[in-house]
Each structure stands twice: as structure tokens, then as C-alpha cells.
Amino acid sequence: MRRRTTAAVAATTLLTAGAAAALTVAVTTRRTRGGPAAFPSARLTVHGTAAGRVTLTRTAESVLPGLYALVGKDCHAIVGPVLDDTEDGGPDTVVRRLERVTRGELRPGSAVTLSPQLHTGDPRSAFGIEYEDVEITGERGTLPGWLVPGLRDVWVVVLHGMGATREQALNVLPFLHQQELTVLVPGDRPDQPGAPEPAGMGSAEWPDAESAVRFALRQGARGIALYGFSTGATAALNTVVRSPLRSEVKGLILDSPVLDPAATVRALARHRGVPGALWPLALRATEDVEQPPPDLDEHARSSTLPVLVVHGPDDTLAPWDASRALVDRHPQTATLHPVPEAGHAAMWNADPAGYEEVLRRFLTPLM
């Protein structure tokens, strides 16, 4: 009897550990068509379209200000601000400006989701910007990348966030290209036997960011601006603290950084309908591999490295307070640009012109 009990306990322990790990992977790395899975958008219904307008189901996300994509199985469109003229609407709907339909057709009854990722494809197909497909080799394997050449010696390495792809960088790529900066956008490695799996929250991915920095330096970069979204921002922060190449990084841009992994896992579980009883399993597995990112005080980076943090108090996935605390610890070198009424990793969407102006002011001294 005792042997059976011991075996049962051991099996239960293994199953619990496996369930925790599987749950963590599902929560932190799931991707969706058309945009970051971490953006908490519910399914919307198209109730009607007219010249330059579309009527949608009213939700907390569908009334957000700014530019967003509508992504459906057979359609893709870009919508602008909420319109004051709501004669086609009602208490359960919202009317937004319809900027353009980029694929398929929006019809009444179409099911769509709201995504902060406006564009799909690559720099050439999205904007006519020439680029080169490159391979970025590192200790964790080989990553594909987009290399967009520029006239300046400073390169910007853009790191996407959880559940997203390198298409996330397309929102800001035209602006960076206009500044004549060389831009490197690493993607996700294809399936490779024996390649280590990332933890999904930023702490395990920083060697990939380091590989991108090393690639840029070998190609002639005279300095690097690391620019990360969500967990990509967390990976960038880990890089400037942990990497021996940290002195080559001249500036750090953190958009919606995940600085409290446990809080983000809880929020993702809640948004994805994971029963509350299972949250401790995901948190337990996450805590085994994810620690809060190191502070800039290590290696004295806080005294020299310019840091721009762009975040919003309405972010329901990555706590705003953690970003504010990071900047408060480094008032001489770090700047916080708050963006109200913006979802996670959707700071640009809420105010593209304002966002790009803040980015321009930060990057200009680095050029």
C-alpha cells in the first residue's frame, strides 16, 4: 500500500509540474493571427459599414483612441478614432473611422478582433522600403532578421514582445527609416533540434538580443539603440545589464516593459479565462525560470545609459507602477513618457505623432 501511495504522489507531482509548465507556455507564448496575443481584445462583430466608417461591438478595447487594425479570418482593415457622429450606433456599438481595407471585405456580421499591429508582411510589401533578409547566429541557434539599411552608423535593434512577431516593428519602421537609421529586426528561430526553448517573459531571451547586437557590430555599427516592446523590452533591459557588449548600447527604449512577471502571468491567465484555481500552477512554473529583471544599478549603467520608458497607466498586463519606479530610481538618465488610454504594447497606436516626436527627441542625441 505504501509503495502505491508513494507512486501515486510521485505521479501527481510530475503531472502537476507538467501542467504548470504547459499552462505557463500557453499563457505566455500563444500567438494569434494579426497581432500580439497579449493584447486583450475580445471578439467583435461588424454591425455595419458606410463611407469611411464602420460600426462595431462596443467593448473597453473598441473605444480606445488611436489607430488599430481589425483582423478577421478573411479580412484586414485599419480603423481610426471613434467618431462623434453615432447615428448608426447605439449603447452597445461604437462607430470608428474606417481608414482603409487592406485585405478582403468588411461585411455586417464579420467577426474581427482589434489589434495594435497595423501592418502585415515585410518592409517592402508593407511600405516599399528595401531590406535584406539576414541570419543572426548565436549560442541559442540562428534567428532570421530584417535588415533595413540607413546612412547613420547608429543601429536600432527592435525586439518584439510576447505572442507577437517581428511585424510588430512595422508600426515604427517608417519613422526610424526617415531618421536614416539602420534598423535590425530579429524574428523567431525556426524549429531546430536541441535549441533551448525561451521562457516567454524576457529573462531567457536576452542572449538573442545580445546576438543581434553582436551581428550589428560585426556589420559596422558604431553604436546600438536597443528598442523593445513588452517582454522584448525586458530582454533589452537584461542585455544592457548582463551582456559583455553592454558598453556598445548607447540608448535603451522600453515600450510597455514587463517588469513584474508574476503580475503579468496572473493578468494573462485572467484575460484568457484560465480558472483561478490553476493560476498558482502557472505562477509556480514561472517563478522557477523568471525573476524580475535586474536593475540598471548593476555595472553602474544607471549613471551613463539614456533610457526612455513609454508606458500607460491603463495597461492591464504589465504594471505601470513598476515602470514608474524604475524611472524614479534613475532620475538623471531615465525618462518616463506616459500614454493614457492605451492597451499593452499599444502606446504608438494611441498617439502616433506624439509617440514619434518623443522617440525623435530621444534618438537625436544618439545619432
Q: Spell out the helices and strands N to C.
A: HEEEEEEHEEEHEHEHEHHEHEHH
Q: Tell me the major beta sheet.
A: 8 strands, mixed
Q: Helix coverage percent of residues? A: 25-40%
The counted number of beta strands is 14
Shape: globular
The total of helices stands at 10
> Termini distance?
72 Å
Outline the low-pLDDT stretches.
1-28, 191-199
Q: Could you give the order of strands across the largest sheet?
A: 7-8-10-9-11-12-13-14
Cα gyration radius (Å): 21 Å
Q: Per DSSP, what share of the residues sits in E-state strands of 2 or more residues?
A: 25-35%
- The class by helix and strand makeup works out as alpha/beta
Mean residue pLDDT: 82
Structural notes for this entry:
This protein is of the alpha/beta class and 367 residues long. It has helices at residues 2-29, 123-127, 173-178, 206-218, 231-242, 261-271, 279-289, 320-329, 347-350, 352-363; strands at residues 44-50, 53-57, 68-72, 75-82, 93-104, 111-115, 132-138, 141-148, 154-159, 182-186, 223-229, 249-255, 307-311, 334-338. Strands 7-8-10-9-11-12-13-14 form an 8-stranded mixed sheet, sandwiched between helices.
Give a brief outline of the structure.
The protein has helices at 2-29, 123-127, 173-178, 206-218, 231-242, 261-271, 279-289, 320-329, 347-350, 352-363; strands at residues 44-50, 53-57, 68-72, 75-82, 93-104, 111-115, 132-138, 141-148, 154-159, 182-186, 223-229, 249-255, 307-311, 334-338.
